[in-house]
Amino acid sequence: MSRVPNPLNPNSKKDRIDSLAATAGDRHRSGDHAQPGGGVAVATVDDAGHVEESTGVSLLASAWRRLRRNPVFLLGLAITTIFVIVAIFAPWLAPHDPAKGLLITEVRQQTNPIPAARPGFPLGADNAGRDIFSRLIVGSRQTLVVGVMATLFGFLGGLTLGTLAGALGGWVDSLVMRIVDVMLSIPSLLLAFSIAAIAARPSQWTVIIAIAVVQVPVFARLLRGSMLAQRASDHVLAARALGVKRSAIVFRHMLPNAMGPVIVQATLVVATSIIDAAALSFLGLGNPDDRQPEWGQMLGAAQRFIYDYPALAIWPALCIIVVALGFTLMGESLREALDPKSRR
């Protein structure tokens, strides 16, 4: 027969506090003591009454242990790292100026519109005599900027709406979620196309803003769900019972514990943003200045020669596919590593 804890007993009160602390998330354990580097020291008592401490493993350390043994994550990380390095150092890695038609004298509209590959030009040139290899390298920077900036702005917008809906609830939650539902009911690419088409003049910022607006409801809905789960947790209820201010509960207890799934989703959204940006540029809604190459823009310019010179479209399309695949593999691996169910 189990013994009912006495609320006047100090030991039972300590057990209650420990059980509340255990619900604060995987980063905190009942009776644990924080250690530098995010680990914890777990206190145990043997039969003789001696207290022994053993170093535990934090959530991030456990996730990294799983990730570094996951070949899918390592492949995605390698692709993403190479892409970022190439994008950062693109002006120094490109063998030629991507805006100069170095082979323009060899372009013949009827007989030789696309110069073939040769020493110094491993992928040949486009119809303006510009080196395709250099344009792919420099175009990676534009692709990275659009993907990261669109994801960042969408993340900030979704963070604001999701926090308001999840923390305040009531009519605020209903209003925000109705707006989110309407936006999610429209196909993302169609919504981005409609927003970009409103702009008086196409530009890179037009693409960034259009994609960011499309991503806002994704982050808002995900964060709102995580915030609602935190509202019902015992440690938040205990903080309310102790009279802690709502702002302190939201920003110190609820929001930090709800950010995990949102950060993982941001990795996946980068891949979606890159694909959407390429689609908008392909449709002519991106930067109209072809002296600043971008993969979607290059893909759109190659459609005139797709039957006779398919390689002109294959190279930028392949770059888009590989980079999007890298971010997707990394994001899915992060999701699995941080999933509490898969860590059991």
Strand order of the largest sheet: 1-2-3
CATH topology of the largest domain: MetI-like fold
> What is the average of the pLDDT values?
79
Derived structural class: mainly alpha
Total strand count, please? 3
Domains, number: 2
Helicity range? 55-70%
CATH superfamily of the largest domain: MetI-like
Main pleated sheet: 3 strands, antiparallel
Encode the helix/strand succession as letters: HEEEHHHHHHHHHHH
CATH architecture tag of the largest domain:
Orthogonal Bundle
Q: How large, in whole angstroms, is the Cα Rg? A: 27 Å
Please tag this protein with its features.
344 residues; mainly alpha; MetI-like fold; three-stranded antiparallel sheet; 62% helix; elongated; disordered N terminus
Task: Explain what you see.
This protein has a 3-stranded antiparallel beta sheet, with no helix packed on it. Strand 1 (32-34) and strand 2 form a beta hairpin. The protein is elongated, with a radius of gyration of 27 Å. The protein has 344 residues and is mostly helical. The protein has 12 helices and 3 strands. It has 2 domains: 10-57, no CATH class; 64-343, MetI-like (MetI-like fold). Mean pLDDT is 79; it is low at 1-42.
